[in-house]
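Office hours follow-up: a student asked to see two folded examples consecutively, so here they are.
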Amino acid sequence: MPKKILTLEFKDLNELHKALGIAGTKHPLFSIIKFEELPALNNSKEAKLIFDFYQITMKTSFPCSIRYGQSTFDFNEGVVSCFGPRQSSIIDPHFVYAKSGWLMNIHPDFLRTYALGEKIKQVGFFDYEINEALILSEDEQKSLEIIFQQIEREYHLPIDKFSQDVIVASLEVLLSYFNRYYERQFVTRKINAGGILKKFDLLLNDFFQHKSNQGLPSAGYLAAQLNLSTRYLSDLLKQLTGLTTQQLIQNKIIDLSKDSLTGTTLSVSEIAYQLGFEYPQSFSKLFKAKTNQTPLEYRQSFN
């Protein structure tokens, strides 16, 4: 019988502040906390944490482990992690806070009337897993520290009609830096990432050879097989190939279907079912969109 894990859900920021043993928020929808100012955590059990708001953490020296799925990850250098609302994580019984850095909490309503409110929903790294955190160089860490310090200063000033505008503007700059540094991280890891691309292609081939009776392969399935989040895999593949996971799946479908159309006498419907399509019309529609020909037109062009 699996052991029961304590689950803690936080629906608003003041609930979190109370649980952390610190004063309430200066703004009901936004807070920024320095790790070194948090009281020691008395935690003797594994706990699953779920928050109804965005969280951004920048940690320098992080002597603890966090578990995602079946893997445990240790951080002992400057890292940035971003979490979207309702994203869960499990902390171990010996969890301690980072020695320095910041924890930023942003309720979606804080951004609701700003363009950033919609933009942040499209930002990929809020869907990344903890093992896909942004590892900072010394210069990058210094640049981000300046922005975090600016936001912290503004947060502690008396609230006026410009306070929220200033913080949101700083958040936009912060996310732009995250995008830049993640791009660098993808580039510097390209050698290792090439192995992921090879594994991805092998997984696709294996799926179509042995599992097409289960339907079409999904981006989520392939990411899980590679121990990556769906969003991170897609962003990584886009950096490596210029194509998203879904586009690469579709290209593989077209390549395999072309082989069948020119090398076998199978009907279009039989090929569609063989590839995992539930409806042959869906296959024909995709083929036409990708090649500007129907499957039959493509086959006839080789006769």
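And the second, which I mentioned at the end of office hours:
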Amino acid sequence: MASKSALLLVAAAAISGCAYKPGPDPEAGVIPVHVPVVSRSDFVFDAAAPNGSLPSSEAARLDSWFRSLDLRYGDSVYVDGGPYSEAARSQVGAIAATYGLFMAQGAPVTAGSPAPGSVRIVVSRTVASVPDCPNWERPAQPNYNNKMMPNFGCGVNANLAAMVANPEDLVHGREGSGVVDVVTSTKAVNVYRSTAPTGTQGLKEIDTKGGK
């Protein structure tokens, strides 16, 4: 009898060891699984710049390239051409200014290097998006495990990613300019201080029997 009990205990221990033990499940918490993801793409254009300046034909090609990229706010324009590219940098800056952009300092690392007598123009574009949204892979009911809905966070975070003009601000943030209009900043405070409290006017008598 004792041997049978021992065998039963060993079998029970073996079966319990095979029990399913789920790992961490993000959908079981309250933090959204769908969050904005910021990605950056670098576009490269090599232009001939004899004597360090762009000929008119190369400037026209560069402008056409900017139009094909739909150059817009949030893009960063760099010039990589060594110490002799200041004249070309000024020309590229003048073309970029027609799109409302300033030149960025430095240049990102790209494959290879510009050929002698040429400069490399790099346009960096940052995009914010929320992958896998919308997501209705699972019905709302039944929800036996009390998990968040698969679409939870898609609406708020997708709108956040869409309304930020420069997606890099989601990563690095942005410091204040330091320029403050005192009149504008104190307008709301002055209205709050100058408005009489509603309690000083007493309670209004409302007649609910007149039917008017």
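Two things to take away from it. Residues 39-127 form a domain with the 60s Ribosomal Protein L30; Chain: A; fold (CATH 3.30.1330.60). The radius of gyration is 32 Å.
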